[in-house]
Amino acid sequence: MKAEFQTRRQFASDNNSGICPEAFAALAEANRGHAPGYGNDPWTAKASDMIRDVFETKCEVFFVFNGTAANSLALASLCQSYHSILCHEHAHVETAECGAPEFYSNGSKVLLLSGKDGKIESKAIEGAVMKRTDVHYPKPRALSITQATEMGTIYSLDELHKVIDTGKRFGLRVHMDGARFANAVASLGVSPKEITWQAGVDVLCFGGTKNGMAVGEAVVFFDTELAKEFDYRCKQAGQLASKMRFLSASWVGMLQNDAWLRHARHANSMAKRLETALAGIPKLKISFPCETNGVFVRMPQAVIKGLYEKGWKFYTHVSPDDARLMCSWDTTEEDVDAFVADAKSLAEKL
């Protein structure tokens, strides 16, 4: 078992990385002595206030264990069972949450929208809303936007405003899946408020795990009316941690001195290095613009098989026909260069 954890860093998922030093130190500090449970501790209060400072606004903050719970419970707070949720066809809430959004909303239907590079198009929103307006059709009520997208791309400020404005025009409440929100902020170089509440986002699922925390996501309600009784949803769903400080303390460590943005920038830069090197290898083709910490590359099956045989781990099921390579807070230049060298060697043999 010990040897298994001494293997090289991989590109399968940014979930595979360990805990970053800032989060680990905060956890160790929170582990000293006793503290009240169920979120009534000073760490949770401090983390919530720090998140309010990051977004420069009053907001309600809740900490849950994982992204599926964050997304599903947040969407459930926006909908009734007879409503529908609009999202991109490759969105995580559709492809990788085992029907949890429908389950926790008591049956709200998820309707899929098209769009290039993993981004929803405004005309697709209008088409879904106007397709039918009779009582026999699940009434569209929520728009779910993924920032950064499942394809590693990001909505620019203009694109975000266009999509959200379209949704608001039809009375849709706006949810943002921000599992890699830090990477999007780091890439765009904007303040967090500019791509959330100032753009019209009602609730954000702010990801921490993929950015170097051990566990825990924050559900941030900018429309505080929508947060009423959300604590009951968390409790009912098994998401009210008794030792809540071990979910919230990491946020204190990450938000201090902008560690969350520093780690995101590093992961993004490693992905750009990886993209640039792979783009120069014949027979490999970059599928989507690398705008955050993920690289999608189309490669022959012989190359994929060869990389697997050499011990590399990465996913091939996220996007049809593509290998997805995720960089993390701890990915190094040496990791990237070693992977590229093996990919190049295999491609040259074809």
From TrEMBL:
GO molecular function per UniProt: L-allo-threonine aldolase activity
Catalytic activity: L-allo-threonine = acetaldehyde + glycine; L-threonine = acetaldehyde + glycine
Keywords: Lyase, Pyridoxal phosphate
Cofactor(s) for this UniProt protein: pyridoxal 5'-phosphate
One GO term of the biological process aspect: L-threonine catabolic process
Pfam families: Beta_elim_lyase
Residue ranges of every copy of the Aromatic amino acid beta-eliminating lyase/threonine aldolase domain listed in the record: 10-299
InterPro entries given in the database record: ArAA_b-elim_lyase/Thr_aldolase (IPR001597), Low_specificity_L-TA_bact (IPR026273), PyrdxlP-dep_Trfase (IPR015424), PyrdxlP-dep_Trfase_major (IPR015421), PyrdxlP-dep_Trfase_small (IPR015422)
EC number: 4.1.2.48
Sequence similarity: Belongs to the threonine aldolase family.
PANTHER family hit by this protein: L-THREONINE ALDOLASE-RELATED, LOW SPECIFICITY L-THREONINE ALDOLASE
Subunit structure of this chain's protein: Homotetramer.
Job description of the protein: Catalyzes the cleavage of L-allo-threonine and L-threonine to glycine and acetaldehyde.
Name of the protein: L-threonine aldolase
Provenance organism: Pedosphaera parvula (strain Ellin514)
